Amino acid sequence: MKITAEDVEHVARLARLELTPEETETFTGQMDAILAYVDTLNELDTRGIVPTSHAVPMENAFRDDVARPGIGVSAALANAPDRSGSFYRVPKVIE
Q1: Which residues of 17-53 are buried (b: 16+ CB within 10 A; e: fewer)?
Q2: Could you tell me how far CA 60 lies from the centroid of its own chain?
Q3: Residue pair 31/8 in contact by the 8 Å Cβ criterion
Q4: Which residues are CB-neighbours of 89 under 8 A, at least 6 positions away?
Q5: Residue percentage of the chain with pLDDT more than 90
Q6: How confident is the model at residue 80, as a pLDDT?
Q7: Phi, psi of 79 (to 5 degrees)
Q8: Who's near 27: CB < 8 A, 6+ residues apart?
Q9: Amino acid 1: pLDDT
Q10: pLDDT value, residue 31
Q11: pLDDT by residue (tens digit) across 36-75?
């Protein structure tokens, strides 16, 4: 597949990018090389290959979810620079 400068400019417009002519030329070559590599991958016979999300078998690395008591309001707010009752007080950011 051959990528043209117009294709690169179109993608840049969609991404809201402003490219110089030199950047357009560079990206045209790079995108063309990427798609040429993908074309070589498309030539591989993948029949009988089961699709996987990982190259090696993976197990869930997370611990079991066990309910535990919280630290409490006073400990949670101990280092708060400003508080209002049992809440953090923060500066207003929306007018």
Answers
A1: eebeeeeeeebbeebbeeeeeeeeeeeeeeeeeeeee
A2: 21
A3: yes
A4: 80, 82, 83
A5: 59
A6: 92
A7: -105, 10
A8: 8, 12, 19
A9: 61
A10: 93
A11: 999 998 888 888 888 777 777 777 778 888 999 999 999 9
The one-letter amino acid code at 22 reads E
Which residues are CB-neighbours of 82 under 8 A, at least 6 positions away?
Answer: 88, 89, 90
Cβ neighbour number for residue 8 with a 10 Å cutoff: 22
Q: What is the mean pLDDT of the chain?
A: 89
Residue showing tokens 């993908």:
38
Taking 80 as the threshold, does the pLDDT of residue 3 lie above it? yes
3 state SS of 94:
coil
**Average pLDDT of span 1-13:** 91
Bridge partners, 83 (sequence order): 88
The token pair at 17 is 């990018």
Give yes or no for a contact between 43 and 20, defined as CB atoms under 8 angstroms apart.
Answer: no
CATH architecture of 5-42: Orthogonal Bundle (1.10)
